[in-house]
Amino acid sequence: MLLLLSEVVTNAIAHSDSGRTPDGKVTVQITRMDATVQAEVTDAGSSTTTPAVRTPTLDDDGGRGLWLVDLLADEWGSQHDETGGTVWFRLGEHE
């Protein structure tokens, strides 16, 4: 959970308007739902980028955030509107 949350928050700061302004805001909400936990990271959105998974090469300095989310989360997605964007992911209980 902490690794994925760190990656998504880092992406919000690096790639959204929240990280481009001194008063930028990123909100984290974590919800437990029966056997799963859902994390949502909301930012100011971006007019230039949208969340997308890419496969990093061994030489890349970055680009692993959503790749890790896609690899490790049970489900994930994003939604965007004129007020900002949210990336969410769910993790289930694993034996």
Describe the structure.
The structure is a single chain. With 95 residues, the chain is of the alpha+beta class. It has one domain: Histidine kinase-like ATPase, C-terminal domain (Heat Shock Protein 90, 2-Layer Sandwich). Helix content is 23%, strand content 33%. The chain contains 2 helices and 4 strands, in the order αββαββ. The protein has a 4-stranded antiparallel β-sheet with strand order 1-2-4-3, covered by helices on one side. A hairpin with a 2-residue loop joins strand 1 and strand 2. Helix 1 packs antiparallel against helix 2. The longest helix has 14 residues. The radius of gyration is 13 Å and the shape is globular. Keywords: ATP-binding, Kinase, Nucleotide-binding, Serine/threonine-protein kinase, Transferase. GO terms for molecular function: ATP binding; protein serine/threonine kinase activity. It comes from Nonomuraea cypriaca. Pfam families: HATPase_c_2. This is ATP-binding protein.
